[in-house]
Write a structure and sequence with these properties.
By secondary structure, this protein is mainly alpha-helical. Helix content is about 70%, strand content about 0%. The chain has one domain (about 5-75). It contains three helices and no strands.
Length: about 80
């Protein structure tokens, strides 16, 4: 999970990049923080997706097999 402080730093570096440019060290920091942010978003989305169940108008479960397998793996943990 990414902290508010890290989000603020990402935004600061983005603004600075547009206004005046970044040093090599800052570019590496920005890239690292962005990767952390993306990992956090992906993990959050994956957890949210694990709770999805798709039902057709007749009430039949039509959740894709791949999603069911992912949910089953998570239940085994």
């Amino acid at each position: 999970m990414i902290t508010q402080e890290e989000l603020n730093r990402i935004n600061h570096l983005a603004r600075k990049s547009k206004e005046e440019g970044l040093t090599g060290k800052e570019k590496k920091e920005q890239q690292h923080l962005r990767q952390q942010y993306l990992q956090s978003v992906r993990a959050s989305f994956k957890n949210q997706l694990k709770s999805v169940k798709i039902v057709d108008p007749e009430g039949e479960d039509v959740t894709p097999k791949k999603l069911k397998e992912l949910q089953r793996k998570d239940d085994e943990k």
